[in-house]
Specification:
The protein is α/β, with parallel strands linked by helices and about 325 residues long. The strands form two sheets. It has a seven-stranded mixed β-sheet, sandwiched between helices. Strands 8-7-9-10-11-13 form a six-stranded mixed β-sheet, with helices on both faces. The radius of gyration is 20 Å and the shape is elongated.
Amino acid sequence: MKLTRTIAALGLAAAATLALSSCSASGSGDAADSSGSGDGLTIAVVTPYLGNATTKEVIDLFQKEGKDRGWNVSVEDTAGDMNKLNSAFQNAAAQQPDAIVLGMGDPTQISLGLKAAADADIPVFAIDAATDDAIAANVTSDNADLGEQSANALIDAIGGSGSIVMLTHDPHPGVRARAEGARTTFEKAGIKILEEKHVNVPGPVDDARKSVQDLISAEGDKIDGIWGGWDEPALGATQALDAAKVTDIPVVGVDGQDFAIAEIDKGGPFVATIKQDWPAIATKVADLIQDNADGTAPDQNQYELPGTLYTKK
């Protein structure tokens, strides 16, 4: 896939800007929005996870970054439907934007969409997804480290030994990588993983809350801690523990969302999260897109930014 646009393709992209905006605005009713104006680049963001607070945060940041640069940025959400994600990519490619951004998701599940972008000579960039031959660059956190840091925080919270539950979501490459990092850390420390529960998206808070309610009822006396692959299932676990008046099972998450920090600061089950640097990630993706449009392709296929542990002050 060529990472720079031809003169003819750029001309077609400019002519198709109005068509892209119209398509995104009418959409299929899942979620479509556009921002920015002027004669800048036209960027199509496609995501399956806009209902997730973290995904929305970083895409909002990217939209603002684009608007500040005078870009036209459209967003389409498929609400967890990967078949629709393929179609959304194909539709976006047909409109000939200057770039398509995958807002989280697994590239292996959208091979048709990525092929459509490659055939149309449109570069694809990713936010917190994974590397792929069809993606110019993926910008994410060091998810293995996020998993290790969060696992160590939970190990400390349970006193260095015991049994834990993991709340995971393998379809998301970042969550899958941090779960692997956490799992390795737990195993090295001799922590027993009682169960790994998949958390559905959309609706991760409710789904995690129900799962933890069931776990408390079935084997609450065996659970010493709960690891959340991101903050929303950790919040759901916290709500379940609060409702059951269980005060001796700590919970950790990952992302550093405001609601997680508020829970940690007030005390209770939620004891730690790892803050991801979403503003820096959004800016880095925008920088890479602009450099590519100016003729400088990314010098690597993945950029990883560090995360920071947050506990009660």
